[in-house]
C-alpha cells in the first residue's frame, strides 16, 4: 500500500512579544480544516504541544519477532 501526500508549503510558527501564530501545512488532497483560537495559559499549551509532537513523531509499531531463530 502506498500513501501519497502533497503539501503546498511547509508548516511555520511566527512569534512576537504578544502573540504566536501557527501555520500548519495540510495535505492538499484533503478538505481544509481551520482553527481560530486564543490561548489563555501559554505554559499548559506549550506542554500539550510538546507531547503532541512526541506522539506524532513516535514509531508505535512494534518490531516483528523472528520466530524459529536459535
- Average pLDDT score: 81
- Coarse morphology: flat
Low-confidence stretches: none
Number of strands: 2
Percent strand: 5-15%
How far apart the termini lie comes to 32 Å
- Helix content percent band: 10-25%
What structural class should be given to the helix and strand makeup? alpha+beta
Q: What spatial order of strands do you see in the largest sheet?
A: 1-2
Q: Report the total helices.
A: 1
- CA radius of gyration: 18 Å
Largest sheet: 2 strands, antiparallel
**Element string (H = helix, E = strand):** EEH
Fill in the keyword field for this structure.
two-stranded antiparallel sheet, alpha+beta, 23% helix, 70 residues, 2 strands, single chain
Report a brief summary of the structure:
The chain is an alpha+beta fold. The protein is built from one helix and two strands; from the N terminus they run ββα. The protein has a domain at 12-57.
Describe this structure in words.
- This protein has 70 residues and is α+β, with helices and mostly antiparallel strands.
- The chain has a domain at 12-57.
- 23% of the residues lie in helices and 11% in strands.
- It contains 1 helix and 2 strands; from the N terminus they run ββα.
- It has a two-stranded antiparallel sheet with strand order 1-2.
- A hairpin with a 4-residue loop joins strand 1 and strand 2 (20-23).
- The chain is flat and about 60 Å long.
- It starts with 11 loop residues before the first strand and ends in a 13-residue tail after the last helix.
- The model has no long low-confidence stretch (mean pLDDT 81).
